[in-house]
Amino acid sequence: MASEFRVTLRSPDLSVGVATAMKAVFLRDVKTAFRQPQDLLNPLLFFVMVVTLFPLGVSPEVSFLQQAGSGILWVAALLSVLLSLDHLYRHDFDDGTLEQLVLQPQPLFLLVLAKSLAHWVLTGLPLVLLTPVLGVMVHLEGNSVAVLCLTLLIGTPVLSLIGSIGAALTLGLRSAGVLLSLLIIPLYIPVLIFGTGTVMAASEGAPVAGQLALMGAFLVLALTLAPFASAAALRISLSNS
Amino acid sequence: MWQIFHKLGSPKWFFGIASTLMPWLLWAGVAMLAVGIGWGLAFAPQDYLQGNSYRIIFIHVPSAFLAQSVYIMMAVAGLVTLVWRMKLADVFVKSVAPVGAVLTFLALFTGAVWGKPTWGTWWIWDARLTSMLILLFLYFGVIALGAAISDEKSSARAVAVLVLVGVVNIPIIKYSVEWWNTLHQPATFKLTEKPSMPPEMWVPLLLSVLGLYLIFGWLACLRMQTEILAREGRTRWVKELVQAQGN
Amino acid sequence: MAFDSFGAFMVMGGHGPYVWACYFVFFLLMGATTLWSLRQRRFVIAQQRRRMDAAPVRDSTPAGASFTRIDPSRD
């Protein structure tokens, strides 16, 4: 029975178009994620808790929080995306869906792109939506909060895309979580620098269009290159297991 | 041309070439490094701004230079691993990554110690030091991933992908760190950038850079030979070699 | 010679500790890396010899009932 299934999947006529396949992968990821809402909620809770630590651990003074607020929120968002990356391929890897995905006639990097986008919609986007609330809690001004949301909106998809490479590379390894952070954090640094730098410039009243455009360039670069690396890494990890 | 390429990929052929090259690399490297450092330490004139502390340059710059180019070399080897599946390229990456990490650490350490008399503190979040620190993290990632995957082929290709992703990121990291640095502390004076350096300073510097390159070449050959011996233990030529070496 | 005496050379105008610490650590770590690499090589050679000594017979026996590991193709 399994072989029959494979035959239909491998039939070379691309009766299922690329766009349809991407949409199917995307919707499937979103739907299955909502069946386990706790997994969706955990990164958000983590985000809120990390932000809470800073006023408690460093100082609740308005002047400090205003200065450090954007950095705190960015670091917390980065860490919670990092935390959620382990789930990106794990379930599909365990139940064999990933192998079927690799065998599809559609190019793998596009399916990986769909998966990364689904990951962003499930983790990055909720973080952005939560940011105004936390921004008020760390005493950021209205303008800074808006720019912060904008940088997170552009920056978190980059985090998901780069993260998918790391998740694919560490798939099926022991202690994958720590290794994943070790591989990915250095690659996140440019996004973090520009994310917080833009907000700081905005709070000083400087124009930020240039920095935002540059972050957009990061996003375009990640969109075009990361799926290829991620797809290659997936094939390697699957041949390993 | 292709024949040379295939030969290059053969561990046995490489092993022979490396054995003949190694003494030359080692002794030329040691001699050049010794001349460069001796000249730099004792004979080069004092710097008018930084006094004698600038003499750290004769090891700081070679380490930093080599640390960066080793990563680039690893990326080239990674590309070769992915495209041509050449075993030797992966042997190179695996053998050289720890050496690259040591060199990066040395560049960081000497930079920090140099910072003490120059800036008054051990560590400054200077653009160069910070990007060196990130480079060290990248090296750690490569070493950790290589160690975590037990299957030789998968490990080779996974590490190659990681190194390539890293090398795409290095210019972005450098650029963003430099931008970040101007944002936070404008116009600190840089350790190594000089408007003009007299030849009594840059000639010994050049010598020590070249010397360290050659010594690195020797170390790379040595470590690659070890890796080949460990991997190709089942082939006849390694068995014969091991028998001959041990007696 | 940039220095008048050996003492001046060691002191380096007050910067001696920094300069010499750097050079010390540089040679220490490079030396350690070299020694480690040489030891590793010796270790690998010894290991291969031990393996050859342990199983010299099996290499020469004709393959009667040998089991070959097959990697099933995944597609």
Automatic annotation (TrEMBL), chain A:
Membrane topology recorded in Swiss-Prot or TrEMBL: Multi-pass membrane protein
Transmembrane segments: 40-58, 64-85, 117-139, 145-171, 178-200, 212-234
Alphabetically ordered keywords of this record: Cell inner membrane, Cell membrane, Cytochrome c-type biogenesis, Membrane, Transmembrane, Transmembrane helix, Transport
Tree of life domain: Bacteria
Compartment(s) of residence: Cell inner membrane
One Pfam family per UniProt: CcmB
Keyword RNA-binding set for record: no
Similarity remark: Belongs to the CcmB/CycW/HelB family.
Purpose of the protein: Required for the export of heme to the periplasm for the biogenesis of c-type cytochromes.
Protein name, per record: Heme exporter protein B
Gene this protein is translated from: ccmB
Automatic annotation (TrEMBL), chain B:
Membrane topology: Multi-pass membrane protein
UniProt keyword Acetylation present: no
Residues of the Cytochrome c assembly protein domain: 22-184
UniProt keywords, alphabetically: Cell inner membrane, Cell membrane, Cytochrome c-type biogenesis, Membrane, Transmembrane, Transmembrane helix, Transport
Subcellular compartments: Cell inner membrane; Membrane
TM region positions: 21-44, 56-84, 96-115, 127-149, 156-173, 201-222
Function: Required for the export of heme to the periplasm for the biogenesis of c-type cytochromes.
Family: Belongs to the CcmC/CycZ/HelC family.
The protein's name: Heme exporter protein C
Automatic annotation (TrEMBL), chain C:
Subcellular location, record wording: Cell inner membrane
Region annotation Disordered: where it falls in the sequence: 54-75
Record flagged with keyword Transmembrane: yes
Membrane-traversing stretches: 18-38
Keywords, comma-separated and alphabetical: Cell inner membrane, Cell membrane, Cytochrome c-type biogenesis, Membrane, Transmembrane, Transmembrane helix, Transport
InterPro entries on file: Haem_export_protD_CcmD, Heme_exporter_D
Membrane topology: Single-pass membrane protein
Primary subcellular site in the record, as a coarse category: membrane
Domain of life: Bacteria
Entries under Pfam families matching the protein: CcmD
Keyword Calcium among UniProt keywords: no
Function: Required for the export of heme to the periplasm for the biogenesis of c-type cytochromes.
Family classification: Belongs to the CcmD/CycX/HelD family.
Protein name as annotated: Heme exporter protein D
Originating gene: ccmD
